[in-house]
UniProtKB/TrEMBL annotation:
The chain crosses the membrane at residues 34-64, 127-148. PANTHER family: E3 UBIQUITIN-PROTEIN LIGASE. It holds the Pfam family DUF2062. It comes from the Eukaryota. It comes from Rehmannia glutinosa (Chinese foxglove). This is DUF2062 domain-containing protein. Residues 21-159 form the DUF2062 domain. Residues 164-199 are annotated as: Disordered. Keywords: Membrane, Transmembrane, Transmembrane helix. Residues 172-181 have a biased composition (Low complexity).
């Protein structure tokens, strides 16, 4: 059963992540644009409120226009979804550290209070702290992801690009041709003299 689950996950991962990524790479997009778009999609995908990241990516694509690559942003946002859930608490604690506010207790009792509406003030404060933590960390995450992903995309684009790079032409093609295959001028002085003597 575990093997079947592993095979199912591998096929799902290939269909949802690997195949779309290969299609993006084969279109020959610039590595810098791909690295920036992937970093942006992951950074926005880590936004600590679930269900909002797709709208944030749509707004970013509309604002940035040609600077971003929309399919890459959305694919990276999709990849970042499981990471988003795991980083909510670190963003919360980071925001609490920045403001010096009290720690929101992550206990079953606190969860019951949230569900019954008894801890509404603490919940709003914790959401604010998580958003603040993400907002401060987002530029650092974006920059680090860009620096790490740019060399990877350079290699991947070179490997998967469908359009091969055009070969470099020599600067002076006439001189190279004359060196490689020298030709005599049509009317050289020796030929003219021979023709005159024959006549």
């Amino acid at each position: 059963m575990l093997t079947r689950f592993g095979l199912g996950f591998a096929s799902w991962f290939r269909r949802k992540v690997v195949d779309p990524l290969v299609q993006i790479l084969r279109r020959g997009t610039e590595p810098k644009q791909l690295a920036f778009s992937a970093s942006l999609g992951i950074t926005l995908g880590l936004f600590p409120i679930c269900g909002v990241t797709v709208f944030l990516c749509g707004i970013a694509i509309a604002v940035l226009g040609s600077l971003s690559h929309a399919p890459t942003v959305m694919l990276a946002n999709f990849i970042a979804t499981p990471i988003e859930l795991s980083l909510m608490v670190p963003f919360l604690r980071f925001g609490e550290f920045i403001t010096g506010g009290p720690h929101f207790p992550l206990t079953s009792d606190a969860f019951k209070k949230v569900l019954t509406g008894q801890a509404s003030k603490e919940v709003f404060r914790s959401i604010f702290h998580a958003l603040l933590g993400w907002l401060v960390a987002a530029p650092l995450i974006l920059g680090a992801l860009y620096l790490l992903s740019l060399p990877c995309f350079k290699i991947l684009v070179r490997k998967f690009s469908a359009v091969p790079p055009s070969p470099k032409k020599p600067l002076n093609s006439t001189s190279s041709n004359s060196i490689s295959s020298p030709r005599k001028p049509l009317n050289s002085p020796t030929e003219v003299r021979l023709k005159v003597r024959d006549v």
